[in-house]
Amino acid sequence: MVREIVDERQLGSIMFKPNTKSSAEQHALAVKNIAEELFPFPTPEFPHFRTFVNEPESQQKIVTNYGNELDPDIVVLQWPEKLPVMVAEVVTEDMLNEEVARRVWAIEARLDGVQFFLYVPSGTAAEAKKLLKKMKIKNVKLRTWRNNAGLRTIDVAALR
Fold first, then answer.
1. Phi, psi (5° rounding) for residue 78?
2. pLDDT at position 24
3. Which residue from 44, 71, 112, 133 puts its CA 20 to 30 A from 85's CA?
4. Do the Cβ atoms of 51 and 40 come closer than 8 Å?
5. Residue 34's pLDDT is what?
6. What is the rounded CA–CA span in Å between residue 127 and residue 120?
7. Cβ–Cβ < 8 Å for 101, 136
8. Which domains are seen in the chain, by residue range?
9. Chain segment 17-67, per-residue pLDDT in tens
């Protein structure tokens, strides 16, 4: 059996190329959408919170007690004190590895008094859970995400 790889799609007389968004573009879009939909601070309920998005450029770093600078994808600060309240990392499939888990997730999950959210692509939750367990990373609010094709929305599911 011969299989042909299709690199164009025809609709009427117009030829369309499949969507070939890079991992970086998918990441940037997911970070933006998650921040807008799930961290829309300030709100009437939380007027003292402010959300900062560090994608594609860093807006708000966090400095640890040891002087290390962290650059989470999403940072929520209590304002005007500028105290971190929540941080979120949005990962793509190529970011699900031990190096990222050790260098980024493990540190952000240990920030005192800060909720750490980890958003992984839909379908990779089991792999993410194994990685978190193997690296002994706790206090993580694990969520899955997927962009809705053709829409500027994102589906997020909480995991237990």
1. -80, 130
2. 85
3. 133
4. yes
5. 94
6. 10
7. no
8. 20-158 (3.40.1350)
9. 444 467 788 899 899 999 999 999 999 999 999 999 999 899 999 988 888
Tens-digit pLDDT profile for residues 121-157: 999 999 999 999 999 999 999 999 987 765 555 677 6
Token digits of residue 155: 């589906």
Would you say how long the chain is, in residues? 160
- Residue 79 zone, left/alpha/beta (φ > 0; ψ -120 to 50; rest): beta
**Residue 11 φ/ψ region, left for φ over 0, alpha for ψ in the -120 to 50 degree band, beta for the rest:** beta
Tokens standing for residue 43: 């709100």
Q: Which amino acid is at 145?
A: W
- Non-local (6+) Cβ contacts of 130 within 8 A are none
Largest CA distance in the chain: 66
User: Which residues, including other chains, have CB under 8 Å from residue 39's CB and lie 6 or more apart?
Assistant: 51, 74, 76, 86, 88
